[in-house]
TrEMBL record, chain A:
Keywords per UniProt: Electron transport, Transport
Name listed for the protein in its UniProt record: Electron transfer flavoprotein subunit beta
A Pfam family hit: ETF
UniProt similarity note: Belongs to the ETF beta-subunit/FixA family.
PANTHER family assigned to the protein according to its UniProt record, in alphabetical order: ELECTRON TRANSFER FLAVOPROTEIN BETA-SUBUNIT (PTHR21294), ELECTRON TRANSFER FLAVOPROTEIN SUBUNIT BETA (PTHR21294:SF8)
Organism: Novosphingobium pokkalii
Domain (Sigma-54 factor interaction) ranges: 58-239
From TrEMBL, chain B:
Keyword Calcium attributed: no
The organism's taxonomic lineage, starting at the top: Bacteria, Pseudomonadati, Pseudomonadota, Alphaproteobacteria, Sphingomonadales
Record-given protein name: Electron transfer flavoprotein subunit alpha/FixB family protein
Keyword Ribosomal protein recorded: no
Coiled-coil residue windows: none
Family, per entry: Belongs to the ETF alpha-subunit/FixB family.
Keywords, in A-Z order: Electron transport, Transport
Organism of derivation: Novosphingobium pokkalii
Domain Electron transfer flavoprotein alpha/beta-subunit N-terminal per the UniProt entry, residue ranges: 4-182
Length: 248, 310
């Protein structure tokens, strides 16, 4: 089977984002960018399915600026076979991303699309579900374990109270949770090899998708600061504080 | 004021607290019509009708809706949206699973995890793990919104007297089926609605030490138990204990962080707690920048001593 893995270039998860003084957004100039951590898990899962002989080809796709090419090269270095960059400098919302991915999926006919459960920049947690709806396919969100059995896929999902297992008819859409796997590092030889793997560049218009935003960002502000607290000297003081708070 | 369709989240016949917070948010957008979908949900529908602020209840009783499979439930909701202006769901795992599928069926953008309602179509929501708050305005004719439960007061579960009307949808889409669930059993308060939470981090070494250290303190304080991602990844506690950007978002009266350094992703899940208490032996740990009360001490001596004195 063929697997499609969409990946997003986002601010590195270790960087503390700074809000621009004019309130128009978060300052991304000269900030380290990386592959969204959940997408690394998605790429890893696709590779593991290939190593098990279940997947035959892994196509990675990214929708974003020309620099998203680096993110795609990272995925190729991990083990993906080829890449599609849908280049645009606009901020593309999940719904538009889902529409572009739908067009790619119709062209490529993957049996599985594996996405991250959310991107750590907009924290939307929407794209996979929207793609599944647009394609009329089942969705296995927040996946903790994925097992392909014939024309079905069994997905264990992380839910609020614990784990839930669902069975989906293929083709299906899966979104990854943190504990699905531990993504591998790309080795230097593989990084070199990835440079010669195919990478097609497209534009949203090639897929007939209008990326005009539906949501207007009015302002972006710093969250309210917490007042600096105090340090207590010993346990007795701490017990006193807990009693003041009425919990002890 | 429009008509707002509200997703009622329920389990084993009981309405979850997050729904009550979503009612408050939905009430700021219009007339609240509660949707109860499931199998054998008469009791839940009756309970939903009692919630203050709910003006009507729609009950979709069908085996296909029993486990809130998005493939079956989303078309039901999308169909009902012909008569409603907004769909509001709590930002629980079920809400997050279903709402975007509804939004795409309606061809509208979704506003995830709102913190406040600023206007008929304007909301605030956290981005970048809560390091920035965006105010966004929708240009779509219909709204699809998920609500961060800790940001809204809970509506009163009684005092309402809405009528209950049965509705039906297409039923089973034939794409997916429920196999089973492993729900972690706990006699403690639920993490997302607990008044007091005691959370442990990587410093707790292993599952036995975590239980032996954190449980007695949580017992003394009548608290729920939470954990950092590091503690979950290391296998000290199950996944659903995780507090953070990618786990649960909590805002209790008192949050006690034991052996937790305070990484960005953890703070995103708990920094709206009323009072934060931190016990950590590293006095430079970032957790002390948000803690109201800090104790610099080795948790393995401090916590048992604290338990002894409570």
């Amino acid at each position: 089977m063929k697997i499609l893995v969409p990946v997003k270039r986002v601010i590195d998860y270790n960087v503390k984002p700074r809000v621009k003084a004019d309130g128009t957004g978060v300052d991304l100039a000269n900030v380290k960018m990386s592959m969204n951590p959940f997408d690394e898990i998605a790429v890893e899962e696709a590779i593991r399915l290939k190593e098990k002989g279940i997947a035959t080809e892994i196509v990675v796709a990214s929708i974003g600026p020309a620099k998203a090419q680096e993110t795609l090269r990272t995925a190729l270095a991990m083990g993906a076979d080829r890449a599609i960059l849908v280049a645009t400098d606009d901020a593309v919302e999940p719904l538009a991303v889902a529409k572009i991915l739908k067009a790619i999926a119709e062209e490529e006919q993957p049996a599985l699309v594996i996405l991250g459960k959310q991107a750590i920049d907009d924290d939307s947690n929407q794209t996979g579900q929207m793609l599944a709806a647009l394609l009329g396919r089942p969705q296995g969100t927040f996946a903790n374990a994925v097992t392909v059995e014939g024309d079905k896929v069994i997905v264990a999902r992380e839910i609020d109270g614990g784990l839930e297992t669902v069975q989906l008819a293929l083709p299906a859409i899966i979104t990854t949770d943190l504990r699905l796997n531990q993504p591998r590092y790309a080795s230097l030889p593989n990084i070199m090899k990835a440079k010669s793997k195919p990478l097609a560049t497209k534009a949203p218009a090639d897929y007939g998708v209008d990326t005009a935003p539906r949501l207007r960002t009015v302002t972006v502000a710093e969250p309210p600061m917490r007042q600096a607290g105090i340090k207590v000297a010993d346990i007795d003081d701490l017990v006193g504080k807990l009693k003041e708070l009425g919990v002890a | 004021m429009g008509k707002v369709l509200l997703w009622v989240e329920h389990e084993s016949g009981a309405i979850k607290d997050a729904t009550l917070s979503a009612v408050t948010a939905a009430g700021q957008l219009g007339d609240v019509v509660a949707l109860v979908a499931g199998e054998g949900v008469d009791g839940v529908a009756q309970a939903a009708a009692q919630i203050a602020g709910v003006s009507a209840v729609l009950k979709a009783d069908d085996a296909a809706y029993a486990h809130a499979l998005a493939e079956n439930v989303a078309p039901l909701v999308a169909g009902l949206m012909a008569d409603h202006d907004a769909f509001v769901a709590p930002a629980t795992t079920t809400g997050k699973n279903v709402a975007p599928r509804v939004a795409a069926l309606l061809d509208v953008a979704q506003v995830s995890d709102i913190l406040s309602v600023e206007g008929p179509k304007t909301f605030t929501r956290p981005i970048y793990a809560g390091n920035a708050i965006a105010t966004v305005e929708s240009s779509d004719t219909k709204l699809v919104v998920t609500v961060r439960a800790t940001a809204f007061a809970k509506a009163d579960a009684s005092g309402g007297s809405a009528s209950v009307e049965a509705v039906s949808g297409a039923g089973d889409a034939g794409l997916s089926s429920f196999v089973g669930a492993e729900i972690a059993k706990s006699e403690r308060p639920e993490l997302t609605s607990a008044k007091v939470i005691v959370s442990g981090g990587r410093a707790l070494k292993d599952a036995e030490t975590f239980a032996a250290t954190i449980t007695p303190l949580a017992d003394k304080l009548g608290a729920a138990i939470g954990a950092s991602r590091a503690a979950v990844d290391a296998g000290y506690v199950p996944n659903d204990y995780q507090v953070g950007q990618t786990g649960k978002i909590v805002a209790p009266q008192v949050y006690v962080a034991v052996g937790i350094s305070g990484a960005i992703q953890h703070l995103a899940g708990m920094k709206d707690s009323k009072t934060i208490i931190a016990i950590n032996k590293d006095e430079d740990a970032p957790i002390f920048q948000v803690a109201d009360v800090g104790l610099v001490a080795d948790l393995f001596t401090a916590v048992p001593e604290l338990v002894g004195k409570l």
